[in-house]
Design the sequence.
């Protein structure tokens, strides 16, 4: 089974709708992240959480909110979806590696289309 | 602030020939650097990481990267490309336990 899972994998929604993307991990990591990927821009950080009571904004948090329901679960919400939020969304987790480098492990992604 | 610049948006190579993907970084302190690969319709997979232990880093699938502080570079190489190497590659710098991604380099492998 995958260490980081995301649901749904694909979603088409209409402008103005509220949508939630969910992420679960079995790696036992404290740190979780949400990114969006757009062609030619790499991945950009939306929100991150270093433990259940810690939520932080990333580079592009406007229009998004998150909830850390448990150590293993981190969900991303679009309160009122707009077409420029059409993107590929990735969840990631990290914990101390063998050299303390905190490399991140990514889920398979959720492709979101807002019409 | 930390950032990375991937110098090529697209690289095309013939199967069996060397691959070079170029990355320059900007960091105010000794960075952790990573290369990730993304195959079509897949998530991101860690290829290799630099964390100051050794300047030449070996990764999976025959890839390696060399950290050159004087040039602020972390270029990724592979001696002989395989068709399965066709993918998008991201150079990444770590700061405050967050990652900053380059824009990506798409690799095409010709038969």
Sequence:
């Amino acid at each position: 089974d995958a260490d980081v899972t995301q649901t749904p994998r694909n979603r088409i929604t209409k402008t103005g709708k509220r949508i939630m993307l969910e992420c679960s991990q079995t790696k036992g990591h404290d740190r979780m992240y949400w990114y969006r990927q757009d062609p030619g821009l790499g991945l950009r950080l939306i929100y991150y959480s270093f433990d259940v009571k810690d939520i932080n904004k990333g580079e592009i948090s406007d229009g998004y909110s998150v909830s850390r329901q448990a150590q293993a679960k981190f969900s991303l919400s679009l309160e009122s979806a707009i077409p420029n939020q059409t993107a590929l969304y990735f969840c990631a987790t990290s914990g101390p590696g063998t050299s303390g480098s905190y490399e991140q492990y990514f889920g398979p992604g959720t492709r979101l289309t807002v019409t | 602030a930390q950032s990375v610049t991937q110098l090529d948006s697209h690289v095309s190579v013939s199967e069996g020939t060397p691959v070079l993907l170029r990355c320059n970084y900007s960091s105010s302190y000794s960075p952790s650097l990573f290369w990730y690969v993304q195959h079509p319709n897949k998530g991101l997979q860690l290829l290799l990481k630099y964390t100051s232990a050794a300047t030449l880093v070996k990764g999976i699938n025959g890839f390696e990267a060399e950290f050159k502080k004087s040039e602020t570079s972390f270029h990724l190489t592979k001696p002989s490309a395989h068709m399965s190497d066709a993918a998008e590659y991201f150079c990444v710098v770590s700061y405050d336990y967050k990652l900053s991604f380059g824009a990506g380099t798409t690799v095409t492998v010709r038969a």
